[in-house]
Write a structure and sequence with these properties.
heterodimer; A: mainly alpha; 12 helices; globular; B: alpha/beta; Rossmann fold; DNA polymerase, domain 1; 3 domains; five-stranded parallel sheet; four-stranded mixed sheet; 21 helices; 11% strand
Chain lengths: 258, 498
């Protein structure tokens, strides 16, 4: 398993039924991650292939990474999808109502953030969107405690730019920032998936932008999954050293300058 | 002997350096390379960094690389917003001046590249947006607009206008990039900083692995005599010296350059020289910088005294009453105190006294606080009977000790009063007498008596009068050619803008 897959999927040894899902996602992440690196670091005559395929690989990585993190925080969500997909009545031609969606499961549907004073009311019941990976509820219940734990346990690793950069951030703004960055990346990469361009794709995606977008995709997944591994309730949690070392390996191999 | 021959101007800021010297005087790390890539790629970017961290240098380098490597694909425009009408206007007037100013920059770039097309003088945002869109489509290229000095700490009102324009001009083929200060939080109603741009932080943090090699790289590139190991006394190596100096000035490149100029004057660098230089940098550079900053802070000018007081108290606190606890190179300030003294701390950070290292850390005495690294020159200044030793130098470089905590109940800052900030008219720096531009500790890049006399006798009695003058107005003065006009402009820009 690649370091990115390891960070995103965690340690699957004792995950029971979740292990098969995480192992499967991990294999996919490793494959697409390696393919993406080969495309963006490939020879110059590879440019056309990179322009056409790299955004696709990066977008798949975003989907897979999000699915892995959702599965580790809310195993029932992915166990249900798996059960539905192995059921005798499963029909690949039909849309699965339970499938993971970017808007609703990763980003909260409504962009308007609920006010702090409205979060904790007696009638609160988490609806779709409010259970999203980067929703305000997950921010308060999962991410902020994970971020605190991350700060507490990573003092000795601040020689890593990635770790030091997180130490400079406000815990309460981490999720806001991740939401904005992931949303921008998803929109940009989706243009290449849905073939929305009615003009030559090269006009909108030059090799430099392409490379930067791909690297940025990996970087944001590394940051988010690194912090996730410091949540005390996440399944397959990596210990601090393993998580930071995997992030540092990616920092030196993928998030480098060329 | 003319001033330019006997005493070359102190080049502290990237934007003052001539094109043909830029490459020789700049060094970029691998991480800088990544930032430059982001500036060259498509998409809106806000480059965030304190004063002197190298924002302008990165923007200029991105511009240079785009011109050299990607001129077929990209039309790049570098526009410093050090333009007087942008400083004193907001609302529609700001939009008008901004669009005119940027149009002229685009016209200049088109002419420079001999492109057979004309760009009109746009005076409103919609016109500028439409024409940029047409230009990119016609030439089948991307347009990258690099806005330097966009955010001014003392003028919050025009910031929302700027970010409004930034958002409007960002299109599929047109990317806006701008440099901003960490204290900038006024983005206006329409601009969502997390959705409308990618914020890239320039971190010059001594804890990061590439900090020492970066400053060593600068030293080797720009100060070859200082990078000569034989000039350093036994026990000092070039990498250690570079790391110490970089850490001493909190990674602030402008202060680093200033310090290197001081050290260059010595035949040999030993502990005594380092100690003396730290003391003199504290008294001749950092404290005067507060004095220099004050008149350009606009509504925050009254807060400068509080900044000065806080500076004295936190450095004293870090050293401790009897020094028995050992030297602490960082402080951990309770978050309520950070909130209460926010602007005063920002001014200290701007002037290079402190630099944030951690946004939130648990305090031993309960609660959470923010960690700031302290500059070593001012720290050394307040250490009783301070003498530089190898042991102290190692403590400075490899600071392992916990930060000195200032809790809410601590009495350290109890008598610091924060005055209210209030809206002001002109920045007071504009009303300063031209004589204040005389070279001094506060204005190390200043002008000589001779030139100041020429300006005053020519009717330019205040800094504002020079800012408002056209090149033609200044060229009418005796013994002032275009070279001197540029030099005077650089000095005035340093005095007025951040």
């Amino acid at each position: 398993m690649s370091p990115l897959a390891y960070l995103l999927c965690g340690r699957s040894d004792n995950l029971g039924d979740l292990k098969a899902i995480m192992d499967h996602i991990g294999v996919q992440i490793s494959w697409y991650g390696n393919k993406l690196c080969r495309l963006i670091d490939g020879p110059a005559d590879n440019e056309e292939e990179a322009i056409r395929l790299a955004p696709f690989c990066a977008r798949v990585l975003l989907d897979l990474g999000a699915a892995a993190m959702i599965g580790r925080l809310d195993p029932v969500r992915v166990l249900l999808i798996r059960r539905l997909q192995v059921d005798k009545d499963y029909d690949p031609k039909k849309k699965l109502a339970a499938h993971i969606q970017w808007t609703g499961d990763v980003l909260p549907g409504d962009k308007t953030k609920p006010r702090q004073e409205n979060l904790w009311r007696p009638e609160t019941k988490l609806e779709s969107g409010e259970r999203a990976l980067l929703s305000s509820y997950f921010d308060h219940l999962i991410w902020q405690p994970a971020f605190d734990e991350f700060l507490k346990q990573t003092d000795q690793y601040t020689d890593s730019r990635l770790v030091a950069g997180l130490h400079h951030k406000e815990r309460g703004r981490f999720v806001d920032e991740m939401r904005g960055r992931l949303d921008q990346l998803y929109s940009r990469l989706s243009k290449s998936i849905h073939m929305e361009f009615m003009v030559p794709i090269e006009a909108g995606v030059d090799p430099r932008t392409l490379r930067e977008t791909a690297v940025e995709t990996v970087e944001q997944l590394v940051i988010l999954s690194l912090v996730l591994n410091f949540s005390t309730i996440v399944a397959g949690r990596l210990d601090a050293r393993d998580a930071v070392e995997a992030a540092q390996q990616l920092e030196s191999e993928v998030l480098k300058d060329v | 002997m003319s001033e330019s021959r006997s005493d070359p101007p102190l080049l502290l800021a990237a934007e003052e350096i001539q094109d043909d010297e830029f490459e020789d005087l700049h060094y970029f790390s691998k991480h800088d390379g990544r930032i430059i890539n982001k500036l060259m790629a498509s998409g809106p970017v806000l480059l965030r960094g304190g004063r002197g961290t190298g924002k302008s240098a990165l923007l200029i380098e991105a511009y240079r690389r785009m011109c050299q490597l990607e001129s077929e694909r990209v039309l790049c425009v570098y526009a410093s917003l050090r333009h007087y009408p942008l400083l004193v206007n907001d609302g529609e007037a700001y939009h008008f001046h901004f669009c005119s100013w940027v149009s002229r920059k685009i016209q200049y770039e088109i002419a420079k590249r001999s492109i057979d097309d004309e760009f009109p003088n746009c005076t409103d945002v919609e016109g500028l947006r439409q024409n940029l869109h047409d230009l990119a489509g016609l030439l089948r290229i991307r347009v990258v607009l690099l806005f330097d000095d966009a955010a001014h700490i003392g003028r919050d009102k025009s910031l929302s206008d700027f970010f409004d324009i930034f958002r409007s001009l960002s299109m599929a083929r047109v990317s806006c990039k701008a440099s901003i200060y960490p204290g900038v939080t006024q983005f206006g109603d329409r601009f969502d900083v997390y959705n409308d741009a990618t914020v890239v932080d320039i971190l010059r943090d001594e804890r990061i692995g590439d900090f020492g090699p970066f400053f060593e790289g600068v030293l080797r590139k720009r100060y070859r005599t200082l990078a000569d190991a034989s000039k350093l006394s036994e026990g000092l190596s070039v990498d250690k010296f570079a790391r110490l100096l970089g850490r001493a000035v909190l990674g602030n490149m402008r202060a680093f350059i200033f310090a290197c100029n001081r050290f260059e004057a010595h035949d040999r660098i030993n502990l005594q020289v380092i100690g003396d230089s730290f003391q003199s940098l504290a008294s001749d550079y950092f404290w005067p910088l507060i004095e220099e900053v004050a008149p350009k802070l606009g509504r925050y000018q009254p807060i400068v005294n509080a900044s000065r007081q806080i500076g004295e108290k936190i450095f004293g606190h870090a050293v401790g009453r009897d020094g028995r606890e050992g030297v602490r190179t960082k402080i951990l300030l309770h978050r309520d105190l950070v909130q209460r003294y926010q602007k005063a701390l920002e001014i200290l950070e701007y002037a290079g006294f402190i630099s944030q290292r951690e946004a939130s850390r648990a305090m031993k005495s309960k609660g959470r606080g923010r960690v700031y690294a302290l500059n070593l020159c001012n720290l050394f200044e307040v250490m009783a009977n301070s003498r530089m030793t190898y042991d102290l130098m190692d403590q400075f470089i490899n600071a392992q000790s916990d930060p000195a905590e200032i809790h809410l109940t601590s009495r350290t800052l109890e008598d610091v009063e924060m005055p209210d900030s209030h809206e002001v008219g002109d920045l007071s720096v504009l009303n300063l007498s031209v004589e204040r531009l005389n070279r001094s500790n506060a204005y190390p890049y200043g002008l000589t008596n001779d030139k100041i006399k020429t300006l005053a006798e020519g009717g330019f009695q205040t800094v504002g009068a020079i800012v408002r003058a056209s090149d033609e107005d200044l060229l009418c003065l005796p013994n002032i050619g275009q070279k001197w006009v540029n030099r005077i402009r650089d000095v005035v820009y340093q005095a007025v803008w951040m």
